[in-house]
Amino acid sequence: MLKSPGLKTPVLSSGQIGDFRRDGYLAMPGAFDPDDTAQIERWTTELAALPEESGKHWVFHETSQTDLGADLICRIEKMSPFFAGFAELG
């Protein structure tokens, strides 16, 4: 498993927390610097390549609507209990 170089997890303002509670999501472009973004991408690739096991992380796929036949990962759930890097984002 890849080790974290010490990610700088963004701190949310009370306004951002309020926006999230109101809207159900919060867009934060640039929340992670390029090095941290690259690390998160490596973790995602590593996690998506792991075999799925009952009771562990779940990878949800869908077929691309623009690149016919291409398999896309639309979301990954329950990853932080089983993958230390994502647990750090906590």
Structural features, described:
The protein is of the alpha+beta class. It has a domain at 56-90. It contains 3 helices and 2 strands. The chain has helices at 14-23, 34-49, 84-88, and strands spanning 58-63, 71-77.
How would you classify the quaternary structure?
Answer: single chain
For the CA atoms, what is the radius of gyration? 15 Å
Number of helices: 3
DSSP strand content? 5-15%
Specify the structural class: alpha+beta
Mean pLDDT: 82
Strand count, sense and barrel status of the largest sheet are: 2 strands, antiparallel
Spans of at least 5 consecutive residues whose pLDDT stays below 50 are none
Shape: globular
Give me the strand/helix succession: HHEEH
Strand count: 2
Query: In order across it, which strands form the biggest sheet?
Result: 1-2
